[in-house]
Structure formats: C-alpha cells, structure tokens
Design goal:
Elements: E1 22-26, H1 30-41, E2 45-49, E3 64-65, E4 70-71, H2 72-81, E5 87-89, E6 94-100, E7 103-108, E8 113-116, E9 118-121, E10 126-127, E11 144-146, H3 147-156, H4 160-163, E12 169-176, H5 192-206, E13 211-216, H6 226-235, E14 240-243, E15 246-251, E16 257-263, E17 268-274, E18 276-281, E19 283-284, H7 290-296, E20 323-325, H8 335-353
Parallel strand pairs: 1-2, 1-9, 2-5, 9-20, 11-18, 12-13, 12-18, 13-14
Antiparallel strand pairs: 3-4, 6-7, 7-8, 10-19, 15-16, 16-17
C-alpha cells in the first residue's frame, strides 16, 4: 500500500527549499493511480491526493468491467500495489495554489504547504442526477434505480428494491442525461451503451427467467470486443433491444412500473410492465472542479470539462505550463483510454521537467 505519511513544513523561519522533483497528482481514480505509477518508475517523487476516503474513484464501486467482465477490485488492487513509493493522501483537498518561480506552492486541507514542479489533474467525472429526468420517476417510484445503484447491488447484494421482490422483467433506459440538450448535456457519455449490455447480461445471470429489455437511441459500440458482447447479449441471453426513447413511466397498483415507448424500427408503440427499471445515468463534468480551475488559471470547455490545449495531440496538456490532465476530467472515456492518457501524461510531465 502507498505511504500515508504527510510531509509538514514549519511555517516559522526561512522558507524551505522547494523539492522541485516533486509532482502532485490530484485525483486517486484509475487515471491518477496509473499516472503516479508511471511517474514513480521515471524517478519522480509523487504525492497523490483525493477528496474521497478511498482510492479508485468510480471504478472502486463497480463490480465487473466490460467487455471481459474483469473484477473491478482486482484492477484497483493492482494499481495500488504499483504506487507503493508514493505519498497517498486521502480525504484531502487543495485549499489554494500559487505560482512560485517555475513551480507551485500548494496548501492542502490538513494545513500543509507543499511544493511541486508540476501538477496533474485527474479529477474524474460525476454521474448525471437521474432525478432531473422527472418523466422516468427516479426517486418517485420505488422500482426505478440507476446504473450506479444496480452496480452497488451486484457488489453487495443488498437492496430491498431487488431482494424483496420477484424479478420477472427488467428494463434499461440508455442515454439518461446524455445526448440531451434539455438536460444541458448534448454529448454522448461513450460508455453507457456497453455498460447497459454488461449489466443486462449480469441481471440475466442472476435472474435467468427474467425478460430483459434495453431501450436505446443508437447503439454506440466502438471498442474492442464490444460488438461481440452485444451479439452475445442477444444470442446467448435473449436480451431484447428496442430502438426508441421511453416516453412515459408510471407505477402499477402492485408497485411495478409501466413503461411506454415507441419501437421506431417496427413503427409501433410498446407498453411493458417491469419489475425493475434501470436508468443509465450519463457522464457529466464535476461541478466542484471550477474553483480549482480558477485557482490554477486553467480554462473550462463549453461542456463543463477541463479544456485541453487541443483535442488531437495536446489532450493531456493545459494552456498553462506545468499543469497536465489525464482521464475523464476532460470528457467521457473508457477505462483503457483513461489508463492510456495517464501514461501519456506521465511522459509529457517527464519531458516538461527535462526542459524538452
């Protein structure tokens, strides 16, 4: 496990000599952990901080990862073992950050002032609050849950909405809060389609006799083995895919939910009674990142994510010298993309510190 030792500089007397070989990684999700691992291997001293009380970000609460259904916990355990030489500070926030010569003086919530030559932001994302889509009844109807709620049940097996009922039919609604101008997010969340396929298969494995339905706008299955996964969902598990938005959700007298939609491929309306309705809440930017962005004088993009230098060769670089990005702080990404960006960002930082 990573060291949790905090270096504390004494405020009285002369200012300590900054440790310019230090790099600060903000965010201990998979991108932050991988970047820290790569920076350690390049010989840098790394401090990794996170507001949460645990490392791993969203992936830490996930059960299986698509498309191979790898245990999420094993991925996090592997990444944690690779940062044994880093200083990991959890439940820690940045109070302020200031330019100091060619580096940064960073005041943390514990009162420490630490000095870094470079900062990597790997602050991740938020999930769209499903209750904002009132027509789907999340928070109103008991049998409407989110993808996050379902993943927690896969992990812990403890949710009365599932455990206390006979599950005979389950529906998944894609693009909840994604590709939706009215919801303020016209962008695709990139991972919702394949996550729905993965969760639909897992539901079918738990409840083999249940009928499972996926309501989608367009299936965007671009990753390696994603199409195979989708074909398996239909062929091997009998999962139904209906192209069409859900227009109305209501509650039946027995507590189940009634879903109305239009099957646009067959040109007919559908009405299905479900034991459980799962809303695939999309990826959105974190609303708490703006104060830090302002402190660092980095820009926000029109979608609320951090703005990269460009979207082709400079995705891991900000407009400010010494500040870099990795993972979903700049937009929706898959796990392999986030890990690849973390490795790229580590090389960018290495070249920057060498003056290249």
């Amino acid at each position: 496990m990573a060291k949790k030792l905090r270096k504390k500089y004494i405020s009285s007397g002369p200012m300590p000599v900054p440790k310019w070989e230090n790099v600060l990684v903000v965010g201990a999700g998979i991108a932050g952990l991988e970047a820290a691992s790569q920076l350690l291997s390049l010989g840098y001293k790394v401090t990794l901080i996170d507001k949460a009380s645990y490392a791993g970000g969203h992936v830490a609460s996930w059960h299986k990862l698509f498309p191979d259904r790898t245990d999420a916990s094993s991925v996090i355990t592997g990444l944690l073992s690779s940062i044994a030489g880093a200083t990991l500070l959890l439940s820690t926030e940045i109070l302020s950050v200031h330019r100091l010569g060619e580096g940064f003086a960073v005041v943390l919530s514990g009162g420490e002032t630490l000095y870094f030559k470079a900062i990597l932001l790997a602050t991740g994302f938020s999930l769209f609050p499903a209750e904002k889509k009132e027509e789907y009844g999340y928070g109103v109807y008991n049998q409407v849950i989110t993808n996050s709620d379902l993943e927690q049940w896969f992990n812990e097996g403890n949710d009365p909405r599932i455990n206390d009922r006979k599950i005979s039919s389950v529906g998944f609604v894609h693009c909840v809060g994604s590709r939706d101008i009215k919801a303020g997010n016209p962008q695709c969340s990139k991972v919702c389609c394949i996550t729905a396929v993965k969760q639909a298969i897992e539901i079918k494995q738990h409840f083999p006799d249940a009928e499972v339905w996926c309501f989608y706008m367009d299936l965007r299955l671009f990753g390696k083995k994603y199409e195979d996964f989708y074909i398996s969902a239909q062929k091997d598990y009998g999962i139904h895919f209906i192209r069409g938005r859900v227009s109305e959700v209501s509650e039946a007298i027995d507590g189940e939910v009634i879903v109305k939609a239009e099957d646009t491929l067959n040109g007919r309306p559908v009405k299905i009674k479900l034991s459980l309705l799962v809303l695939m809440a999309g990826i959105i930017s974190r609303n708490d990142i703006q104060p830090l962005a302002e402190d660092l004088s980095v820009m926000m993009d029109s979608d609320g994510f951090l703005l990269s230098r460009d979207n082709i060769t400079g995705i891991t670089r900000s407009q400010r010298p010494g500040i870099f990005y990795a993972g979903t702080c700049t937009g929706p990404k898959t796990i392999p993309e986030s890990l690849a960006e973390a490795r790229s960002a580590a090389i960018d930082i290495h070249n920057y510190l060498r003056g290249l």
